[in-house]
Amino acid sequence: MHDLGAGRGPFWLDDWLRANATDVVAWRRHIHAHPELSRHEFATTELVMSLLRSVGLKPWVLPTGTGVVCDIGSGDRCVALRADMDALPLTEATGLPYASKTDGAAHMCGHDAHTAILLGAARALAGAPELPGRVRLIFQPAEEVMPGGALDMIAAGAMEGVERIYGLHCDPRLEVGKVGLREGALTSAADLIELRLTSPGGHTSRPHLTADLVHALGTVITSLPAVLSRRVDPRSGTVLVWGAVHAGQAANAVPQDGVLRGTLRTADHEVWTMLEPLVAASVESLLAPTGVGFSLDYRRGVPPVVSDPESHALMRAGVEAALGETAVAGTEQSSGGEDFGWYLEHVQGAFARLGVWSGEGPMADIHRPTFVLDERSLLCGVRTLVHTALATLA
């Protein structure tokens, strides 16, 4: 396994990776072949516990039964490193020899790599002659479901005493050896909206004698995004997109019920806090003239991931120390959601995108059955996390 950061030190990290690079790859492949869905990561949790205990560490499992927390080192100062462990409910189509052996579950988002990377960083740090403080390892369950397993971690006390937190996510749009960094918003808040409408129903020849439910649905579908675009700062990256609408069967019957579902996203934390009451008031005013009854289920998902300037600078220093100045790449702000944002509600931190594209052939995107990654990225990830923790504790 070619180590793109070999020789950059510290010596104990170089030595550990030279001796254990194949183990990091083997861990990732084992997890990849045995994926577990959100809050069912029992075997993955046991593997993590076993590998941490084998080097003298004392990890503990969340009360929910999945997810692991472990401290390395000593002292008052503590920096956290986070990886997520859950797979997606997809069927893999890569044809790899270590492809998923579990029907309907596959690591098509790179969480197998994230877990192996943090395991590598943990065992390397455990062998360091000394550390300038504590490093807290957070192996998180249930990132793929809203509002996310980060809340389980926080509720269990994983953020107590932590001054900063960092994380990585695989990015097939970046070549291996590159790490994408961005100060400020990296991902968006992502909320779910479900609107249920009711009407007495009736014949389409007499809409004036009932409440036209389908027309009311259409009004909300077209008008609510327009209303929000005039009530929210356009620089916030706020976007409402409908994903499902259901109502009626017969062409000549006004249906009695219907449902509309969509996602509302924003990169601005202040805007995120005001969206729920704004949506509720807007829906009520849009539907008032129609006579249609409604119930609105607004489910807050995850906050935006916003890397503060100091944490961003520390992570950049970590990447440069780990892989060189040319490894730092810019990266765009995404409308996707990531529950790492919950940690940033409690402490400052930064999140980065880890290049996993080999540089040859197509870029197989995440959340697709064909997603693959260049395993040299695993060692790049180990080095990045270790150096970021050291830079923060220095």
From TrEMBL:
Per the UniProt record, one Pfam family is: Peptidase_M20
Q: Which domain of life is it from?
A: Bacteria
Question: What UniProt keywords apply to this chain's record, in alphabetical order?
Answer: Hydrolase
* GO terms, molecular function: hydrolase activity
**Which Gene3D superfamilies does the UniProt record give?**
3.30.70.360, Zn peptidases (3.40.630.10)
Q: What is its EC number?
A: 3.5.1.-
Q: Which PANTHER family does this one have?
A: METALLOPEPTIDASE, PUTATIVE (AFU_ORTHOLOGUE AFUA_6G09600)-RELATED, PEPTIDASE M20 FAMILY MEMBER
Under what name is this protein listed? Answer: Amidohydrolase
Organism, as annotated: Amycolatopsis roodepoortensis
